[in-house]
Amino acid sequence: MKITQQQIDNANKKLLNGFELDVYYCLIHHEKTAVKSIQISDNEYVFLRLEFYPEYENLNGYKKKTGNFFPCCHISKEIKSNGFYTSYGLGKVIKLSDAQPKKTFSTLQKLSENIDIDKMIAIAKNEPSCLEDSKFLI
Question: For 42-132, where are the E strands, in sequence order?
């Protein structure tokens, strides 16, 4: 997959709240996602990724993909030490809207406007005020 600087600029123009196209992920996985990095202390960062996760249905105790996808925000808290980032755990995934049949980057661009950055940071920090949000985790 090739991507030009103009395509990157066009994608970033429609992303809001400081999100940017993850060019590396796009080139490696052939899928557009949006990312944002937020420094919360000298060596702690919260990373947000807007991406799609598959929808599953329960079929007699087994999970089966439906073919639809949820737009989600993956939240991870990482610590920088000696130039490397370390994350403890898998992070959290928040479903942003209902499942849809296609993964469209324009959906992620529209949803980037409504991301509550302070709430996502609080979820990353496991603050007690966000315990109710665990209901929405995938």
Answer: 44-59, 62-81, 84-87, 92-95
